[in-house]
Amino acid sequence: MLITIAEQAFDPWQAVQTYQAEHLPAGSYGATSIFIGTMRDFNEGADITAMCLEYYPGMTEKQLEKIVSEASQQWAVLDALVVHRVGDILPNDPIVIVAVWTAHRGDAFAACRYIMEALKSKAPFWKKEQLVSEQVRWVESNTVNKAT
Amino acid sequence: MFMSIKVRYFASLKERLGCSESHLDFAEGLTVQAVWQQLNPDLSLPNNILAAVNMDYVGLDAIVADGDEVAFFPPVTGG
Fold first, then answer.
1. Alpha-helix runs per DSSP H in A32-146
2. pTM value surpassing 0.90
3. Which of A121, A126, B23, B77 shows its CA 20 to 30 Å from the CA of A54?
4. Which residues in chain A have their CB less than 8 angstroms from residue B78's CB?
5. What is the DSSP letter of B39?
6. Is the CB of B76 less than 8 angstroms away from the CB of A139?
7. Which domains are delineated in chain B?
8. Considering only CA atoms, which of B46, B6, B66, B76 is closest in space to residue A56?
9. Average predicted confidence (pLDDT) for chain B
10. Is A54 within a domain?
11. How many domains does chain A have?
């Protein structure tokens, strides 16, 4: 399991490939479920030019580890990778990646979904948006209904 | 006994208070809610604010101990 807070832009596909090559023996897994979150250039009716992501060093990693551990207790997870950007971010930049390796697809889909939803509601990250209008605003909450 | 804790604020709450970190010394057991009131006597704790002690979520009635790190922050918006 690897939890990483990324202060620089990262390539999610490269991150998955590298982690898989280094940690997952060939033939040991049958399913890989991957979620990638990417920054949009619009939110809540406004055009967004940039974003700054703040976090709570220490607590963020601790909560992410707890979330992955909870998923591993519920489903047969062989390994998991979570990378989350912080700092200044531009539209089209990857924000988060959750990758889960399991023997079968059911566990991979379920565990990946669980980790991502729990991250949205429990991991201490906060987004501050820069609008085209040059206003700056904090995103106030993660809405649950956008999960479906 | 004399006790001391560190208190941290994040994101929009930090900007609203104009403060990211402070310290509180006290003599007897305090709840997280009481920590807020002692440090911010002119502002009641906003309803949506979350609290953590030593980087774990807690309820506002949790008791803090000497050396704890208490944090207050708005709803999280990562991912």
1. 59-74, 105-122
2. yes
3. B23
4. 53, 55, 84, 95-96, 119-120, 123-127, 142
5. H
6. no
7. 3-73 (3.10.20.30)
8. B76
9. 97
10. yes
11. 1
